[in-house]
Amino acid sequence: MIAPPWPRGRGAWLLPGLLALLALLAARAPGRGAGTPLRDVLDATPRQLPTQPETQLLATVLPWSVWGGNRHGPALAAGHYWSGEPTAQQAVLTAGQSAAFYGQEALDFEVLADPRIGSFITDTPRGPGLGHGDPGVSKPVSLLAVSSPAGPGLLATGPGGVAHWAHGAWHRAPDHPAGAPVLLAQAARSPDDMHLLLFYPSTRLVQVARSTGARFQVHSLHASLPGSAAPRAVAGPGGLFVLWAGPSLMRVVAPAEVGPDTPVPLALEALPHAVEDVFLLSLTGVGPGATDAAIVLASDQLVLCHGIALAGCTEAEVLDLPRWTFGTGTRVLAPPALEHPGPAVHWLYLSNWVLGLLWHLELDPGTRAARHWTPVRVPRAASDHQAQMRVLGLRVGPDQAAWALAAPDAGPAFFLARDFRCDGPAGDPSIRCPGAPGADRGVGYACDAGRDLSPFLRPGHLCAGCAAGMEALPSDGPLPECAACPAPCQACVGGRCVLCPTGSPLRQLPDGSTACGAECPPGTAAGAGSRCLPEYPALHLDVSFRPMGAPGFPGPGRLLARTRLLVHDGQVYLSPAEAPASAMVVFLEEADARPVWLPAEDGPAGPWAPLPAGLFAMGPVRAFAEAGPLAAYCTEAGALWVRRYECAGPASPGTGACPLGLPPETMLQAAGCTELRPLGPGLVSVLWQDRAHVLRLGPAGQAELLPQAPGSARHPALARPTPRSDPWLLLLAGKPRIDGSPASSTDPDPRLSFLPVGLHLARDSRALLFDSAVAGPPQELPPWAEPVVVAVADPAAPAGPGAQEIFVSGIRPTGGAFLWEVAHLPAGAAPHWRTVGASASRELLGRLPAGALAGAVPDPGAQRVVALDLAPGPGAPAGDRFPAALALITHRAVGLAVVHCSPAGPPPGPGAAEWCRLLPARFFSLPVPAEHPRRVDLLPVPAPPGALARVRLLLPGLAEPLTLEVRQAPACPAGTYAPDCRGCDAGCRACRGPGPGDCTACAAFLPDAPDACLASCPEGLFPDPAGDGACRCHPSCARCEPAPAPGTGYRCVECPAGGLVPASPHRCAPCHDICRGCDAPGDPGQCRACARPDLVLLGGACEPACPSTHVPVPLQEGGPASELLCVPRMAGCLVPKPDGTCATCEAGYHAVAGVCRPCHVSCQSCQDAASCEVCQPGLVFLSAESATPSLCGGTCAPGEYVGAGRCAACDASCELCAGGPDRCQCLPGRVVQQRRVVPAVRRVLRHLRRWHGQPVHGLWPGAGAC
């Protein structure tokens, strides 16, 4: 029985009577409603509802918010802060006492209609932030976002009280003698007008307060909260507050105006059971009295209180919970009444995160009666956040919202299976939903057999792609058919393997087919373990440089770029938008010089011409790009200028060109612009402040610099993930780094991803979160990488899977040298349709010549990679093509790697699938160094007959641009150099001349001296399997070093752990398969441990079990029970050790040097052979001194008697004694003489006894002598 909250004794009747009168008046007051008290409601018999089959929550692919998972960042909250809207918002509450709010406005369902992707919340704040400065509540400060019809409000709580952000400033609640209050609940009419429910723990006083910023009005309730339990409270519409602690439940209605004398109606009830949770929601409808309450009691009952008011419930229903084990911590999850005033919902969740339970309760929409319970399986992805989960309205269509569960701070959103397209006409056949074999319990679903996640590709199909090792084949439906590749291929084209697992390089067989294998065939070498590259390319290139040949050119120039502008007779024209830009513009070194226009044709036939003054702002230009009608350039100061090309007159009927108009330029950014790249029609990639952004023309024709491509530090590219899809952005996200440099949370490892262009242009929040397109660890991408898309489609054939090849090119430092590496996605995503988790091969194209880079470490400006189209050349094998090449530009060299395409399988011919791959690169020295390689572009011009390609480029200091011409050189065999195919030096594997300094690849070299080429590796060293000529330890050896004797080569000094042992001075050999570590290679009787947990080690052999003479013990003391060793059985040993000794002996034994020896027969247990710890029953210790170890016996030595547990000495007057020291006995032949003691002597002896505390033996009666 809860004691009343008012004092007993004199005047005790006044307050209860007053409260009863107030409650009665309040119950009859307009708007307060009449109803049944909860205590009376609980007299009804609880209903037991039927249970439906289990359903499950399913997780979105991405986190529900772009702010999720930032555990070291700002605090997060979620709710319907604009309470009249159907979709939720998120609040980012910072430690600096400020808040920003973000919504779901950025979802563009016309671009991507699938809400199961997630990422509903954008990163653009919705309106200005709230809260600045110190709220004055002492630290630590917690911020609380509050919903209202007019938008969010903000409260701050701390040890010093509560403060309200109103009218642009903090307003703290007034001080109270009871100390600082605890905020229990809050409700807002507007951001500047709030009702608060405050609690003072020291007095258990409850206050209702109203803050309008300018005023903070407070009213103390006349009833303190009974008991000692910590209270909780919830607010509802109309000023309703419900407060509970233990079995006490109080309902308070805050008036519009609050003051010390304002009557505040309240009702306090003592319920028969403790209250676990109260949740106010709208189950009834919209309008006055539409607030309902779901009340969870500790008696495992749920009360649905319809139309809750001060007097109680208009209608009520009491339900038994579906499981009596819900227990403490049960909470209601539903749309809160304050945030969701209508329309009514007809369901709610019960959650107990401690027990991992979640149940869904459904009500009848007409009668409001509860229908049934449905258990809900919580996937692992939700279990860590179940305690923080709440119900949120999320956008699932242009004008649609759906309820989902989500935690404010992290993780995905969770929909019920019925809302996840698991079945029905809109079902997704690419996934397996709950109950299907293989459904993933981590997120609630799994991709169908043979499929993999590809979320953006086909709306309505999460798993449109094929899994690794499967090929996407055409089908009649929206999804491809997934067919298995030859094992163990990771990707295949036309059934031909094009990608192998790491450590099993792809090799081409003599018949032209491909396979994965452990070794490369002769004449090839594994490039970084992914593919066997030919040591000598099938197409040998040669390049030449020469001046362009433009007499009177006003150079030198600083930048060469492509342009749509045409100059004729001094007039500037604009070529048609559909025509590719062919002319060029040169920006000169002289700051005030006008840019120069160049025609596409080479030589004097097309004269240069200066462009009109004012066409571009004066000043040094560092970057220039055009895309459609958009022209952009960056100055050396970093300013970004944009001009929109327009026609000033009608187009010419012959050429389609029109006179150029000059609309005004616009400066979008004053600083930070470093690079520009044309990206697509009307799109330019801008590297601004070390991040890639996309520049486009907006709907009204104005230039817009979109937010950065998500996480991207390099220019994106456009690629088609499937043969007939629209181009997507190919993004390299994360800041690329050199191997060995530490990564940080702000410097993520690089990852390659596909992203629909439309999502990014629409600023869709789903474009802000995306997964890696390249599976595997980050080192699979080379450092300082950038994506390159190469068009390889055969013009004579329709576009097929090989229409595009995707490469990620970079430079990797190693051993004082630099390697040109690429990660290759064969045919892009076309073979498998996967837009996330796509596999890539890592290939070494070649070693850069010495001095090719200006520094010792490559930096972002050290390279530029472009794709060059190649014209058909003579002598190509039947069916083979060389459609393009990658060109790598460094400070002092240019490298070319040809793309070689051949039929992927029969039958060859137009339209057949092709396998395209890169050939080893060849490097050529630049005529003069390129100061900024990333500013150097290779602009193709028409090639003359016999040339594969002709390009223009601009290098610093030259009077005019250069022409670079690529031709097919005569094929020379390996070890010779063109054009006469003369032999290289013995130390060269490839060379450009006869001397040892002309090596472009060493036949052999030591890793610590990569520039010193050797004819072969020293004795004891072997060629690196990567095929670059490095001499290393034998692959089986972990470490080798020079032999002690000079000139005797190297020897292996260390084998890898777990299965290899020395077999010769130079290499290690594997143990027998049954062994895990051994003393002799290949010998099953020389094992140090067994490779299988079901075997035990016996004398070096692995056996199924120990013989009866042995017992199993862990191989290592304290080691796992799965690694056991048989040791001889030792008598008396309780705990044997691996070395055959005993750690603990049984009772009756003692250890001697690890061997258990029997104790003396008198000992029950002993320390050693001469001392007992416990005697056998009926025996005592023979030593009279307790500190002296001894054996045990039944009789004691002469002069001693059997005492309490050990022998004790007799009195000195006794020859023998028994039963006590003074109970003398005599030796045989002698008797005890008794002495008579006179009374006087007895009195003296008595005094002596009192003095000494013991009898004087020999004189006391009973004593005597022999």
From TrEMBL:
UniProt superkingdom: Eukaryota
Signal peptide location: 1-33
UniProt entry keywords in alphabetical sequence: Signal
The name this protein goes by in its record: Serine/threonine protein kinase
Organism of provenance: Fonticula alba (Slime mold)
